[in-house]
Design goal:
alpha/beta; 8-stranded antiparallel β-sheet; 6-stranded antiparallel β-sheet; 22% strand; globular
Length: 606
């Protein structure tokens, strides 16, 4: 992984490739490169620097057929030799997202056939395999050679392939990793994300599992691995794929934090009443459910963990939340009458997709995706879906995708409660009123930014931090710690506040800031006792407290007062200052906020 761009045209496409990579930078990468056919030869440029460095190298090259890639290292360290594109005998050029699980076996086989490997990657195996088939079995037909190679590859992949003997032919294929085609005027494109090529096309096709695409400047053919012609529906380029300007903000993460009122408003804009219809289901289908199994990773897992409190409290339906990457590797007790809910920003998260498929294999028949991308694999593979309408999220550290997921999951809790006759009409109307007021409440919290900036100056000097929350707000503390880790590189951990005395209190010193989420809920007095435990050990408390909690700043306690308590929806408001704290701390430390080291935006490999 992490990003693929390909183009075939009747003009120089170097700028198209470079701009496409620039649009994919937000996904994270540690090297990048491109290759074109120039004067009947394959030429390439690769770097472990940023795309801007690649653009400088590109000024010396030109070509009307090319492929490009941003790489996030999996096999082999991030250096130029491991960067894509990979060549085989200067005849075949290839870029690849995903992981080939049987690459070691293929590598030994190809070595025995005389191939020499110059990288540590699994990707180079694909290039040599296609070359071997192209020269020995496919009668120098690139399309056929690629199709012959695919059954030999075990794992997940999206590939784009070119050959110096075919200067007007670009071949792509996908299994388990996304790939889209885009149609221009006498030119065609492929990419791992519509965002990369959106400005050059008005229509696109999302390739299905196992599809092979053969592109020239004037024609596109889609087949299966056997070469049988397939028909895929053309769709308009999503408007959100075009709009990626930073505007007046310093970073995309800051912009996206402040886009949350609009994102929440868009997510709930058409909600007049709650019920199964919001998710594309019938009342009968929801009423038959006995429980909910939620599968997610990272930030989405914390959204699911918050939803567990809502669904069990409001709908009285039991909920099990699983880390997707762990779920399918242990024995579980499936219940076919449970609703499987997968939560993902991209809808292409490899671990969550694999967990969904595993749940189906165990006999689960009802599934729901809460996702930000309508055309994603996750939405296509579930029975029901709820789209969050967060818009394009560029910053690797998720913000608006998280809060819109929470809004969607809260609607799920209300809908299950209504279907099961556990939500009165008055309570439904009150909940919807609070949801509609939520964007205004978010604006009020975002106005606290100057106070949070002042705190960030102290946090920037620390190397460790603790986050505390109780009940419904414990997952929010986890999310706050994750944000600080992701972009500032400060080691941060979150605990239920009641767990302090069972171990973590040993870490508390004057050098350990302790961030506390303190809403005015039923656990407030318990939380105050936990805070006193920190204060008694010399710890420094930084508290985000609702206005009526009667927690005041004093020696060892700094308080930022939230505008209002918001009941069940309080987690959405309380995560906002934690996002801002992480953001401004990272700025104070001078880290790359939008592209933190070692991380990718869309994790499409296991």
């Amino acid at each position: 992984m992490c990003g693929i761009v390909g183009a075939v045209a009747q003009r120089n496409i170097i700028d198209v490739l470079v701009e496409g990579l620039r649009r994919l930078e937000y996904r994270g990468y540690d090297s990048c490169g491109f290759a074109v056919v120039q004067n009947n030869a394959l030429v390439r440029a690769r770097t472990t620097e940023r795309v801007a460095d690649l653009a400088e190298q590109g000024k010396l090259l030109q070509g009307s057929l090319g492929i490009a890639h941003t790489r996030w290292a999996t096999h082999g360290k991030p250096d130029t030799h491991n960067a894509h594109p990979h060549f085989s005998h200067d005849l075949i050029g290839l870029v690849h997202n995903g992981i080939i699980e049987n690459y070691e076996e293929l590598r030994e086989e190809l070595k025995s056939a005389g191939y020499q490997f110059v990288s540590q990657t699994d990707t180079e195996v694909i290039a040599h395999l296609i070359h071997h088939l192209y020269t020995h079995q496919a009668q120098q037909n690139l399309d056929l050679a690629v199709r012959m190679a695919l059954p030999r590859l075990h794992g997940a992949y999206a590939i784009a392939v070119i050959c110096k003997d075919s200067p007007d032919l670009l071949v792509g294929a996908r299994v388990g990793s996304p790939l889209v085609l885009a149609f221009g005027e006498n030119e065609n494109f492929l990419a791992s994300d519509a965002l990369a090529v959106a400005e050059h096309a008005k229509q696109m096709v999302y390739l299905e599992e196992g599809d092979v695409a053969v592109l020239s400047h004037s024609n596109v053919k889609i087949t299966n691995a056997a070469g049988e012609i397939l028909t895929r529906e053309k769709k308009p380029v999503p408007e959100q794929a075009v709009a990626v300007d930073l505007g007046p903000y310093q970073h995309f993460m800051q912009k996206e934090i402040f886009e949350q009122p609009r994102a929440i408003a868009d997510t709930i804009s058409n909600v007049e009443s709650v019920g199964a219809h919001l998710f594309g289901a019938t009342e009968e289908q929801f009423n038959q459910l006995e429980g909910v199994l939620m599968l997610a990773c990272g930030t989405s897992y914390y959204a699911a963990s918050t939803a567990k409190y809502w669904i069990e409290s409001i709908a009285k339906v039991p909920v099990q939340v699983e880390i997707a990457s762990e779920y399918r590797y242990r024995d579980t007790v499936p219940n076919a009458k449970n609703l499987v809910v997968v939560v993902s920003q991209s809808g292409e998260t490899a671990d969550t997709l694999a967990a969904l498929r595993h749940a189906k294999a165990l006999g689960h028949t009802q599934s729901l995706a809460v996702c930000n991308v309508a055309t994603s694999a996750m939405v296509r593979e579930t029975n029901f879906a709820f789209l969050t309408h967060a818009g394009t999220e560029i910053g690797v550290a998720s913000t608006k995708a998280f809060t819109t997921q929470l809004a969607g999951l809260y609607l799920l809790a209300l809908s299950l409660a209504k279907v099961k006759k556990r939500l009165s009409l008055a309570d439904e109307q009150l909940a919807l009123h609070q949801l509609r007021h939520l964007p205004a409440a978010i604006h009020a919290v975002l106005a606290l930014e100057p106070q949070i900036m002042a705190w960030s100056q102290s946090f920037a000097k620390c190397e460790n931090a603790l986050f505390l929350g109780r009940g419904l707000h414990y997952p929010i503390a986890l999310e706050g710690a994750l944000k600080l880790k992701e972009i500032s590189y400060i080691h941060a951990e979150a605990y239920p506040a009641g767990e302090l005395k069972h171990g973590p209190l040993a870490l508390v010193t004057e050098q350990m800031p302790v961030v506390t989420v303190a809403p005015n809920d039923a656990l407030l007095e318990k939380l105050k006792s936990n805070m006193q435990e920190v204060k008694a050990r010399g710890g420094k408390l930084y508290v985000f407290a609702d206005a009526d909690t009667q927690i005041a700043s004093s020696d060892g306690i700094q308080v930022i007062r939230m505008p209002e308590h918001y009941g069940h929806l309080s987690p959405i408001l309380h995560v906002l200052p934690l996002q801002l704290l992480a953001y401004h701390t990272a700025c104070a430390r001078g880290t790359d906020v939008d592209k933190p080291r070692n991380l990718a935006k869309s994790v499409t490999v296991e």
